[in-house]
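Q: I'm building a small set of examples for a reading group on sequence design. Run inverse folding on the following structure and report the sequence directly after it, with nothing in between.
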């Protein structure tokens, strides 16, 4: 599992969370019952934070795509009914 982190030198760099999880697992095993619970909770927080970050980035990308696709609405005259409306269809296809 990797995340991108902000770096003053580079815009992004990948951080391998597997290394962090292995270290937290080692700490769980070393610290006994109470320490194990604590380090396990820290690992779960790290996992959850990464999942939230991924969802936020995906949502941000989706908003960016939606904004780029957005077009200006076409204005129609007041006398002409909106396309697809019942009034338009009756006017267009009535004998």
């Amino acid at each position: 599992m990797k995340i991108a982190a902000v770096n003053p030198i580079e815009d992004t760099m990948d951080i391998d969370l597997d290394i962090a999880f292995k270290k937290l697992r080692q700490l769980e095993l070393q610290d006994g019952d109470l320490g194990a619970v604590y380090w396990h909770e820290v690992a779960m927080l790290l996992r959850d934070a990464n999942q939230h970050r991924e969802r936020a980035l995906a949502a941000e990308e989706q908003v960016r795509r939606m904004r780029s696709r957005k077009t200006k609405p076409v204005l129609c005259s007041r006398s002409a009914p909106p396309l697809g409306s019942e009034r338009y269809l009756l006017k267009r296809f009535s004998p």
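Confidence is low (pLDDT under 50) at residues 6-12.
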